[in-house]
């Protein structure tokens, strides 16, 4: 079937929930994608950070194949070895003591919200249930995570949403302090926002979160679904922002693109759950966890956070040169290999023109070009990316 025929056929039977680019990708390796017509593209989106170790890396293919031959699924009424192995890797490399596995980032954040509320219900004489989140956040598309997500555009048509959530401007210390009440059980935020335009949490905001948590017994929830697992130059982003959370949500890179999600929590918080309080059929299945364990081992063994720190500095330096060259580039944002260029006009045309040159980039928050390449990217690929983007900017200019 020809590409256009395939796309028309797909449009006839697949729900219209994505604004898709008219291309059909059939193969990928490392930082390159190949479409159904044999064209090669440099991927600077990396499955929105899910393909963090590149497309179809050999170690991941081997791990999935080996586990698939043995056992793909078993109910969580029983134990399985890959689940323990991945949980041990997460606990040994983070603040946490206990792990809960699910299937996606939205599920992970839903679990984080439920655990925080259960903790607030059990630990205080008067149950606490309110959760404070921040502007421009994105935590998922379930009804619960939509309530935590501050972007109104995602909520349109889904109200009434679950109650008990307050949003404050990100990095606004005074608004945060005013939002916390005797009903508040947790404060939730992304250390480095993804959909929110690559905005980093400020030192002042972190200090206030820590202060409020200590004085009022609040939980700190960090959403590291996009910024975690090496992406910012540390294993977890919270390590670079002066904060130790009580709950952390993870997904995307954790299994190299294979569907998985998790929350990591301290033992004190995790103990708020008893059997039956939460669950999932497929979460923690042997196949996903084998993929996750293999990916985590590679991130550790290859010292990916250190590589990201070096390559991220190189990328940001190159992007700063573009900023100095073009007046319409307002600023370079982000950290590590989670970086953006903020423009003074909508970035959709830039994304389209880059795609025509076989470069895959993304635009978020209207005017921020977002770059989330596989963390195995080479410097020569960074050079190719920046040179191609320079060509696009010249055309637009």
From TrEMBL:
Record's protein name: Acetylornithine aminotransferase
Entry keyword Amino-acid biosynthesis: yes
Cofactor(s) the record lists: pyridoxal 5'-phosphate
Miscellaneous notes: May also have succinyldiaminopimelate aminotransferase activity, thus carrying out the corresponding step in lysine biosynthesis.
EC annotation from Swiss-Prot or TrEMBL: 2.6.1.11
GO biological process terms, semicolon-separated: L-arginine biosynthetic process
Cellular localisation: Cytoplasm
InterPro entries in UniProt: AcOrn/SuccOrn_fam, Aminotrans_3, Aminotrans_3_PPA_site, Class-III_PLP-dep_AT, PyrdxlP-dep_Trfase, PyrdxlP-dep_Trfase_major, PyrdxlP-dep_Trfase_small
Chain residues that bind pyridoxal 5'-phosphate: 105-106, 138, 223-226, 281
HAMAP family: ArgD_aminotrans_3 (MF_01107)
PANTHER family assigned to the protein according to its UniProt record, in alphabetical order: ACETYLORNITHINE AMINOTRANSFERASE, MITOCHONDRIAL, AMINOTRANSFERASE CLASS III
Positions that bind N(2)-acetyl-L-ornithine: 141, 280
Domain of life, per lineage: Bacteria
Gene Ontology molecular-function annotations: identical protein binding; N2-acetyl-L-ornithine:2-oxoglutarate 5-aminotransferase activity; pyridoxal phosphate binding
Catalytic activity: N(2)-acetyl-L-ornithine + 2-oxoglutarate = N-acetyl-L-glutamate 5-semialdehyde + L-glutamate
Keywords: Amino-acid biosynthesis, Aminotransferase, Arginine biosynthesis, Cytoplasm, Pyridoxal phosphate, Transferase
Pfam families documented for this protein: Aminotran_3
A cellular-component GO term for this protein: cytoplasm
Pathway: Amino-acid biosynthesis; L-arginine biosynthesis; N(2)-acetyl-L-ornithine from L-glutamate: step 4/4
Chain positions with N6-(pyridoxal phosphate)lysine modification: 252
Top EC group: transferase
Bound cofactor: record note: Binds 1 pyridoxal phosphate per subunit.
